[in-house]
Write a structure and sequence with these properties.
By secondary structure, the protein is mainly α. The chain is built from five helices and two strands, in the order αααββαα. A two-stranded antiparallel sheet has the order 1-2. The radius of gyration is 17 Å and the shape is elongated. The protein starts with a helix and ends in a 15-residue tail after the last helix.
């Protein structure tokens, strides 16, 4: 299983902000630190804010901060949210797919169970378990 870069960046943002809970960070600061596209990261931050994981503020003291304590943010929930719309395999897409094995495929149910188990296992951990503290020189 491979997560999208959208989810990867989302997890990085949450981990980084959890490491500095009293410090609002701008999209530009985070993009520079992670060495990723500012525009792509802005979409990630917007999605996280829309889901209630982040609060964002404009202006001189603006930036993003966690909207809830890291102990209340389950990793599986974050991944499920950020990966929504991404299917594990083609036959999971809405409306089905053109797979010639459907409806007799016995793999689809196993893959669905594996995906559910993956998210359930991630939900055993919270953001507090993965706080990132950058090395300050």
């Amino acid at each position: 299983m491979r997560l999208t870069s959208f989810t990867d960046y989302g997890l990085r943002v949450l981990m980084r902000l959890a490491g500095a809970p009293d410090c609002a960070m701008t999209t530009s600061e985070l993009a520079a630190e992670f060495q990723v596209s500012r525009n792509h990261l802005a979409k990630v931050i917007s999605a996280l804010a829309g889901a209630g994981y982040l609060e964002t503020r404009r202006g001189g003291s603006g930036g993003a901060i966690l909207a809830r304590p890291p102990e209340e943010i389950r990793l599986g929930d974050v991944v499920a949210f950020l990966e929504s719309g991404q299917v594990l395999v083609e036959c999971f897409s809405p409306g089905g797919a053109a797979c010639t094995l459907t409806p007799n495929c016995r793999l689809k149910a196993r893959l669905a169970q594996a995906e559910a188990s993956f998210l359930a296992d991630l939900n055993c951990s919270t953001l507090a378990d993965c706080v990132y503290h950058p090395d300050i020189l």
